[in-house]
Structures are given as C-alpha cells and as structure tokens.
Amino acid sequence: MTVLTHAFTPGPIVASGPVKLTLMAPVARFSLRLRAANIPAVSKAIGVDLATTVGARAANGTTETICLGPDEWLIIAKPDDTETLVKACADVYASATHSLTEVSAREVTVRIEGERAAELLTIGCPRDIDTIPVGGGCRTVIDGVTVVLWRDAEQSFRMDIWRSFALHVIDLLCTGCKEFAAE
Amino acid sequence: MLLIHCPYCNQTLPEAEFTYAGEAHIARPSDPSSVSDEEWRDFLFIRTNVKGPHYERWRHFHGCGRYFNAVRDTVSDRFLITYKTDDPRPELSKLLEKSK
After folding, report:
1. Is residue A167 part of a domain?
2. Residues A98 and A113 in one domain
3. Are residues A58 and A99 in the same domain?
4. Is residue A64, in this structure, part of any structural domain at all?
5. Do A35 and A88 have their domain in common?
6. Domain of B84?
7. For A80-103, what is each residue's pLDDT tens digit?
8. How many cross-chain Cβ pairs, A to B, lie less than 8 Å apart?
9. What's the confidence (pLDDT) of residue B60?
10. Burial label, A46 (beta-carbon count in 10 A; 0-12, 13-18, 19+)
11. What would the pLDDT profile of A106-165 be if each residue is shown by its tens digit?
12. N or C, which end of chain B is more exposed by having fewer CB within 10 Å?
C-alpha cells in the first residue's frame, strides 16, 4: 500500500509570539558509524575533525557533525555536497572501515527560536535543557519520540524529527506556543 | 523520575531516555546444542529476582543507544553504580560500603 506522507513544505509554522517555529529546507543527512582507530582517516576524508565526546559538535563550512554515541555521528551537509562526501568516504574505506548511510529523507528539521524557546522544549523533553551547552546538542526524547536537538544559541534550537513522528511533535510544539500566547 | 548515569555519555539523565533490559551477567552457553533442556530453560527464563541490590542491564535508548550495566536496589530504586558492559562486575560489598 502506498501511503502519501505529508509534504513538509519549508516555511514558518508559528511566525509570531515568544517562540517562532520554522520548518527548515531539506539538507543531506548521513549516519556515520566507525571505530575509534579510524576517526582520523575519516575526519580527514569529510574535512571535519569528528568530536569524540557524546553531544559535541564539529563543523567545517556547511558540513556539520554531532557525536551521538561512542561510535556514532550524524553528518549534515548541503544537498549538493552529497556526492563529494560519499566519494571521499568511499576512497578511504579500504584502510578505514566505516559505515556511511544516507538518511536525508528520514528526518525533517524544525528551527525553534525566540525568548522562551528553551522553556517551550520542556513541554515534552525530560532532559534539563540548561545542561545542553550553546554549540552542543544531544539525542533525546520529546513526548516519546527520539529527536536530535542542536543548540545554536541560548534561545535558538534545531530539532531533527523522524518524518513519521514530525506532525505529532510539531503539533505539540504549536500547542506550547498557543499556551504562551494565551498567558 | 529516576536520574540514571550513562557511562558512555558520562551524564546523569532522566529515566525517560532509558529502557530496562533485564538481569545482567547472564552468559549464553557457548555451545547451545550440548546443554540439556533444563540448562537451556534456566538460561532463557530463570532469573534471580533479587530483593535488594540487583545487577541489571539498561539501554540508553533515546540517547547514545548503548546497553550498559547497573546495580540498583530493587527496594529503594537507588542506583549504586552504572558501568560499561565490558567492565568487570563490581563487588557488592564494596558498593554497599561506598553508598553508606
């Protein structure tokens, strides 16, 4: 059975109020798994020094990485860079075994910003938001859904949500925005 | 909500990110076809069901995704320690002394 999923047209979701929500344009996403010994070789190939602390980020231009686990990273890049990145990794595969999987279509990203952005997240996220440093991130849970949270500024976050759960999570965030507006 | 220390993330995080994964340190017989039905049944189903400090597995499901081991008191729900899966099983007497 073919199931038509939501189109997820990028653009503002909540445009005014103490928190603004914006659906961001599609990006290339990759899941990277590798052993510690191969980190230098693969870092060199993708042009980013992969961080080894869980939650730490590293970037080079438009290519961003976040360490999600002891052997797992998420790479975000411009869609145009997909081929270059895949080829660069394939070239070092023989000497530095790794697994690079394109997961671009798996998630959509919502930008959450505004003076009460961190407070809005507490609607479903049990983690203490204050413990996420600016320029860091984490994989966590919001209302039962696994998401990757990137903290770009004190009150500016990006949330990567799996497509099939995105409508639910966005709806929840909208509810929070309405609650702020009603105060 | 319980706060659980993930030894891989090295952070103490809310229970909602974790899932329980049964008793720890249960080794699968290396040659299953050579064990008796009773031994295989014990491996699959028979657990200690401790009242008190319990060696158990947890998984940081909504986080790094790793399984790790923990010693939790099943009466008070207090975690005595969490440790990586390849770390040796900690001595209970030392843990109890430390927690006093």
Report:
1. yes
2. no
3. yes
4. yes
5. yes
6. 3-27+35-99
7. 999 999 999 999 999 999 999 999
8. 42
9. 97
10. buried
11. 999 999 999 999 999 999 999 999 999 999 999 999 999 999 999 999 999 999 999 999
12. C
- φ, ψ of residue B38 to 5 degrees: the values are -65, -40
Compute the distance between CA of residue B53 and CA of residue B39 in angstroms, rounded to an integer.
Answer: 25
Structural domains counted in chain B: 1
Structure tokens at A77: 């890049």
The last residue of a domain, from among A54, A80, A104: A104
User: Of A54, A126, A141, which has the smallest distance from its Cβ to B8's Cβ?
Assistant: A54
Low-confidence residues of chain B, pLDDT below 70?
none
Q: What length does chain A have? A: 183
Contact A54 B9 (CB under 8 A): yes
ipTM: 0.89
Instruction: Choose the mutation target among B17, B61, B87 for the interface with A, i.e. most A CBs under 10 Å.
Output: B17
- Tokens 């010994």 -> residue: A37
Q: What is the pLDDT of residue B100?
A: 73
- Neighbouring residues of A163: CB distance < 8 A, sequence distance ≥ 6: A5, A6, A8, A105, A106, A107, A108
